[in-house]
Write a structure and sequence with these properties.
Elements lengths: L7 H24 L8 H23 L4 H42 L3 H11 L3 H18 L1 H4 L4 H8 L1 H16 L1 H4 L2 H33 L2 E9 L2 E7 L13 E6 L9 E4 L8 E7 L2 H7 L8 E7 L12 E6 L3 H10 L7 E7 L8 H11 L2 E6 L14 H8 L7 E5 L2 H13 L7 E2 L6
Parallel strand pairs: 7-8, 7-10, 8-9, 10-11
Antiparallel strand pairs: 1-2, 2-5, 3-4, 3-6
Subcellular location: Membrane
InterPro entries: FAD-bd_FR_type, Fe3_Rdtase_TM_dom, FNR_nucleotide-bd, MRET, OxRdtase_FAD/NAD-bd, Riboflavin_synthase-like_b-brl
Keywords: 2Fe-2S, FAD, Flavoprotein, Iron, Iron-sulfur, Membrane, Metal-binding, Oxidoreductase, Transmembrane, Transmembrane helix
Length: about 450
C-alpha cells in the first residue's frame, strides 16, 4: 500500500497549532480581566491553571498515537516533547495551587493551610481535583530518570496511565468554579472542544484502532526460531497484512495472549519487511518482556498497537546509505535492507557485536552481501571507550577508512541509546549533515 511521508510544512503547522492554543488561552484570561480581577496573586493563579490545563491536554494528544503526529514526528520526538510539556504543565499546576490558595487566603485573612483545607473540602469539584493532582504528582515523580531506572517497563507503563485519571478528575472543578471556562460562550466552547478532542483521540487511537487492527488481521504466532544465544525470532501470520500501514524500520507494541503477562505490551521492531501474510520480530531475552517472548507457543493470538516510528526508507535523501547497528538493534536495520531500493555497492552495514558467534542474521546478511551487493562489516571485539571495539583508533578516521564516501550517504542507526548518541557525535564531528542522520531512541 502507499505510505505517506512526513512533510516539513505539516510539522510546522502542527507546532504552530500548539503555540496558538497557548496564546488563545492567554487571550481568554485577558478577556476575563487579566491582572485586574480579584487581585494579582489570584489572577496569576488562574493564568497558571489555564496554561497547565491546556498543556496537559497537549501532553495527552502527543502520546495519543495519532497517526498524523506519528508520521510527522516519530515516536522518539513525541516522547521527548511529551516529557517536556508534562513537566512544564506539572510546575504550572503546582504554581496554580499555591497562588490560588495564597490569593484566597489573603482575601479572607486566613492562613495558607486553613484556606487550602477549605478549598478542598467546601468548593465544588475541588476534592476530585485534589485527587487528580495527587495522581499527576505520582506520575511525575515516577517519570524522573532515577525513579524510572528502578521500575520495570511494564510497571512504569501501568502507573503512567494514572495521568489520564488525573486529567479526568481535574475537569469538574474547572467547569464548576473556573470563571475563565465559563465567562463567555467562546471560552466554554474552546474548553469543552479541547477535552472532547483529547478524550476522542485516546479512545480512537489508543483503544479503538488497536482493537480493530488486531481483530481485522487476526495475527497468530506461527513459529519461534532461535537466532543467536538469547535471541529468538517470532514469526506471525495474519489476514490482509498488506492493508496494515507498516514499513521496515517501524515497531509495534505487542501483546501475546498466552497467560500471565498477556495484558502487558512491549515494543519490538519488525526484523523483516512486512509481507502480505507474515510479520516477524526478533527479541533478546532482556527484562520480563523479552524473556517471556521466547516461551510463546505457536497458535498464540497476538494483539498489536502500531505501527510506530519514523525511521523508514521515506527519510532517505540519497541513493547511498550507511546502516549502523549494535546488538539486537540489527533487527530494524535488517528490515530496512529488505525495503530499501538500491544499486549494488551503494549500501554499507556496520554491525557492532562482541563476537561473530553472537551476530544475529549472519546467514541473511551474507545473502544480502552476495545477492544485493551490500558491504557488510562486523565490528566485533572488546568494548573500548567509544562505539567501536578496541584497536580501531580515532573514531572519525576509522569511520572514513570503512566508508570513504560517508558525506554522500544517509545514515540509519539502531542500538542502545548511549551507544547511538556516541555514534551521532562521531558522525557530526565527521561532517555528516544532521538531516541525513536517522535514528530513534527506544528509551522510556
Amino acid at each position: 500500500m502507499r505510505h505517506r511521508a512526513s512533510s516539513p510544512w505539516a510539522r510546522r503547522a502542527l507546532i504552530g497549532a500548539g503555540a496558538l492554543s497557548l496564546l488563545f488561552v492567554v487571550g481568554l484570561w485577558l478577556s476575563g480581566g487579566g491582572l485586574s480581577s480579584d487581585g494579582t496573586v489570584s489572577a496569576l493563579g488562574r493564568l497558571s491553571g489555564l496554561l497547565a490545563s491546556n498543556l496537559l491536554l497537549v501532553q495527552v494528544l502527543l502520546m495519543a498515537r495519532i497517526p498524523l503526529l506519528e508520521r510527522q514526528f516519530g515516536q522518539d520526538k513525541l516522547a521527548r516533547q511529551h516529557r517536556l510539556v508534562g513537566f512544564t504543565s506539572f510546575w504550572l499546576m503546582i504554581a496554580h495551587i499555591v497562588l490560588i490558595t495564597a490569593g484566597y487566603a489573603a482575601a479572607s485573612g486566613s492562613g495558607l493551610l486553613e484556606q487550602g483545607w477549605l478549598l478542598v473540602t467546601t468548593y465544588p469539584g475541588m476534592l476530585l481535583a485534589f485527587a487528580g493532582a495527587v495522581a499527576l504528582i505520582a506520575v511525575v515523580v515516577l517519570s524522573i530518570r532515577a525513579a524510572r531506572r528502578r521500575l520495570r517497563y511494564e510497571s512504569w507503563h501501568l502507573i503512567h496511565l494514572y495521568a489520564y485519571l488525573g486529567v479526568g478528575l481535574a475537569l469538574p472543578h474547572q467547569l464548576w468554579t473556573g470563571a475563565e471556562f465559563l465567562n463567555s460562550p467562546l471560552a466554554t466552547a474552546y474548553w469543552w472542544s479541547a477535552y472532547v478532542v483529547a478524550l476522542a483521540a485516546v479512545l480512537i487511537f489508543r483503544v479503538g484502532l488497536p482493537l480493530w487492527r488486531s481483530w481485522r488481521h487476526g495475527l497468530r504466532v506461527v513459529a519461534v526460531v532461535p537466532e543467536a544465544p538469547g535471541v529468538v525470532s517470532v514469526h506471525m501470520s495474519g489476514r490482509q497484512l498488506d492493508k496494515l500501514p507498516a514499513r521496515a524500520g517501524q515497531f509495534f507494541l505487542w501483546r501475546f495472549l498466552d497467560g500471565r503477562g498477556k495484558s502487558r505490551a512491549n515494543p519490538f521492531s519488525l526484523s523483516a519487511a512486512p509481507q502480505q501474510d507474515r510479520l516477524r520480530i526478533t527479541v533478546k531475552d532482556l527484562g520480563d518482556g523479552g524473556a517471556r517472548v521466547a516461551t510463546v507457543r505457536p497458535g498464540t493470538r497476538v494483539l498489536i498497537e502500531g505501527p510506530y516510528g519514523a525511521v523508514t526508507s521515506a527519510r532517505r535523501t540519497s541513493d547511498k546509505s550507511l546502516l549502523i547497528a549494535a546488538g539486537v538493534g540489527i533487527t530494524a536495520m535488517r528490515s530496512l535492507l529488505e525495503e530499501l531500493a538500491f544499486q549494488s555497492g551503494k549500501v554499507t552495514l556496520l554491525y557492532r557485536v562482541r563476537s561473530r558467534a553472537e551476530a544475529v542474521f549472519a546467514g541473511e546478511l551474507d545473502w544480502f552481501s552476495a545477492n544485493r551487493g551490500v558491504t557488510v562489516s562486523y565490528l566485533d571485539g572488546q568494548r573500548g571507550d567509544s562505539w567501536l571495539p578496541r584497536g580501531y583508533g580515532d573514531d572519525v578516521e576509522a569511520l572514513y577508512r570503512m566508508v570513504p564516501d560517508l558525506l554522500e550517504r544517509d545514515v540509519f542507526l539502531c542500538g542502545p541509546v548511549p551507544w547511538m548518541e556516541t555514534v551521532v557525535a562521531t558522525l557530526r564531528t565527521a561532517g555528516v549533515d544532521r538531516a541525513r542522520i536517522h535514528f530513534e531512541r527506544f528509551a522510556w
